[in-house]
Amino acid sequence: MTAIDRVPASRSVDDVLADARRTFTRLHPAEAYEELLDGALIIDIRQEAFRRTGEQILGSLVLDRNVLEWRLDPTSAYRIPEATSHDRRIVLICPHGDASSLAVATLRTMGVHRATDVVGGFVGWKEAGLPLVAGFTQAGSYVQDGSAPITIDLHAQEVTVLGRRVVLSRMELIVLSELHRAGGRVVTREELNHAVGSWDGSSSRAVDLTVHRLRRRLGARAAQCIETVRGVGFRLLTSASGCPE
Question: In this structure, what DSSP letter does residue 142 have?
């Protein structure tokens, strides 16, 4: 047998999987959910048969496994618009967390060095009781439910972001409520100052500071829904006017 004909020593898929996982730190479902709220891109690579069971992760992007590398390579002509840098935080999720680990290892060899996956996969996410929405999403699209990531119940004075209740201070809740009531209209700083009234330590920049804290509490993804209109004030974007799903 010539050198060309020699077959390298075989290795089991379990060995390959174990080696792949030694190269990165995986996320537990709750950690992945926190990163989703903070702007990480969660990519659902489950096969269509699994996705047709009718449960999905709101805000995740569905991609077919066979095109994943081309879609996430910043240098590829077939990349998705979000794949602008090798620094993008990517979190893969598959049914049980095995295929996703192998895919992460491939992405990392391409330089997508912040890619990782979810321990237990979609099953682990569901068992952890994390938010899911009903429906089926075609590959290449984001999972959405027709609404913006922020849900506001003014009567109960409760705010949820992608299914998670967020506790706001009184001032933050007032500002968010005023923006919500405006229905997409720009609310001036003067209007917001009037709504919140005066309080100890208030200043001309109080509204701006409150909006800054509000954005931090909402998380990076939902924070994009609050638009600053320079020299005028703020407005809460709806899904129809540009708020990211």
Answer: B
Query: Residue 95: helix, strand or coil by DSSP?
Result: coil
Give the integer Cα–Cα distance in Å for 176 and 193. 13
Architecture category of domain 150-241 in CATH: Orthogonal Bundle (1.10)
Domain residue extents for the chain: 13-134, 150-241
Tokens standing for 165? Answer: 């209740």
Each residue's pLDDT tens digit, 32-46: 999 998 889 999 999
Q: Which two tokens stand for residue 184?
A: 């997409």
Instruction: Take residue 58 and report the two structure tokens written for it.
Output: 């709101």
User: Helices then strands (H, E): number in the chain?
Assistant: 10, 12
> Are 236 and 176 in contact, with CB atoms under 8 Å apart?
yes
Same topology between domain 13-134 and domain 150-241: no
CATH class of 13-134: alpha beta
Backbone φ and ψ of 200, nearest 5°: -55, 130
Q: 60-80, pLDDT tens digit by residue?
A: 999 999 999 999 999 999 999
Render pLDDT for 166-205 as a digit per residue (tens, 0 to 9): 888 888 999 998 888 887 788 998 889 888 875 544 555 7
DSSP 113: T
How far, in Å, CA of 191 to CA of 37, rounded? Answer: 29
User: In whole angstroms, what is the distance from residue 76 CA to residue 96 CA?
Assistant: 29
β partners of residue 56: 133
Quick one: tokens of 132?
A: 């899911």
Contact 226/186 with Cβ under 8 angstroms?
Answer: no
